[in-house]
TrEMBL record:
GO terms for molecular function: aldehyde dehydrogenase (NAD+) activity. Pfam families: Aldedh. It comes from Gulosibacter macacae. Keywords: NAD, Oxidoreductase. PROSITE patterns: ALDEHYDE_DEHYDR_CYS, ALDEHYDE_DEHYDR_GLU. One of its GO terms (biological process) is aldehyde metabolic process. This is Aldehyde dehydrogenase. The keyword Transport does not apply. The active site is at 219, 253. Belongs to the aldehyde dehydrogenase family.
Amino acid sequence: MTEPRPATALDHIPTLVAQTRQSFVSGRTKPISWRLAQLRGIEALIVERRRELSVALAADLGKSETEAYLTELSIVRHEAQLAQRQLRRWLRPKPVGVGLALTPARAWTMLEPLGTVLIIGPWNYPVQLVLAPLVGAVAAGNAAVVKPSELAPATSALLAKLLPNYLDADAVTVVEGGADETQALLAERWDHIFYTGGSRVARIIARSAAEHLTPITLELGGKSPAFVDGSGDLDTVARRLVWAKFTNAGQTCIAPDYVLATKDAVPRLERALTAAITELYGPDPMRSPDFARIVNRRHFDRLTAFLGGGRTVAGGTSDPDALRIAPTVLGDVNPASPVMAEEIFGPILPIVPVADAREAIAFINARPKPLALYTFTAHRRVERAFERGTSSGSLVHGFAIAQASIAELPFGGVGESGMGAYHGEASVRVFSHEKSVATKPLRPDTLKVAYPPYSRAQQKLLRGLL
């Protein structure tokens, strides 16, 4: 006789999902009062547990408390506050014209929640990129299951502990674990799946979602370029590039992945970047309390293999025990080298020389569409050339990565860098169905003009109306 298999955490996932779905079916998540209560709960979690969240982020990624607040906690708090202020306006039905043929009648669109959604978070911003989508999910009136990344275990455990204390624990639940738990969750039927991470896992999620024709939002990444033509204040350009690239040790999906610099600007830019690294992180950046570490040894080894991909302008050193790689700038980089073949996602910044903006645009357009594209130029005509001649999730002139903090600006990719956008009102819309509604009184029955049999006069009238 076969011994019964012991129960595992995986066995409880179908029950948990069913219970969460029942919370939505019961109607408890739809009232504005419930939605606002969840938004207040997310805001309170950030405010009251700021210290604990910062400690968890330091344990997982070596983030300083200031960086944790600047790049994670403050963004979530602002999203929750904005949604509280604007939710009623965002949900207001929008009237549309009905045309002369249907008069008298009225028509409008209204947003309704999709149902029960799955949010799968990444490890690089394990608070922001879990809770910011959750703001949109609950603001739209959905029940949600949240799956934090197992590669940020301290943050995952803390979110699993805290979320039930601040949100409706029957309608917003947390599942911890790795690939097995993710696969078990993907086997369930969802009304929407929201995933932030890499393209390899995104393809797995897309295939699983296709089984149930489940809509998905994919927030991915790719190689986000920056163009520098040497005009303007290069010292400021360098500081902004260094901050954007080396925040979170380069483990940011919208960080500048590489720089396309005009040949005349390259020497000056290299000197300015080297000075900016020292200015921001000190003479030994790997000892800086404001410089994060690499998430694990696998990613560390992948990144150190890129260090020989060009002439070392700055940095180039690493410490496997501390999982730290110094902020590194590589010059004379061959576009065919391995460092240019995949998203770097670490503190290594290659510089590729180009002749001008036209060559830079051609270089970018020959590759998959990036999540973000940055230009640093004093010439408005150059900015317009990039606006008209390239396609990217976002296009930013004069700074980098901080566009993600603009809650009113939709954030998302295009093509290989993702599908769908969120933040602010876009977050509510991505987790909602825009339902069309129309109404017409029974009297007078003006539709009689459309009923057969059709006389010549009726045909003429219909042609005029339609």
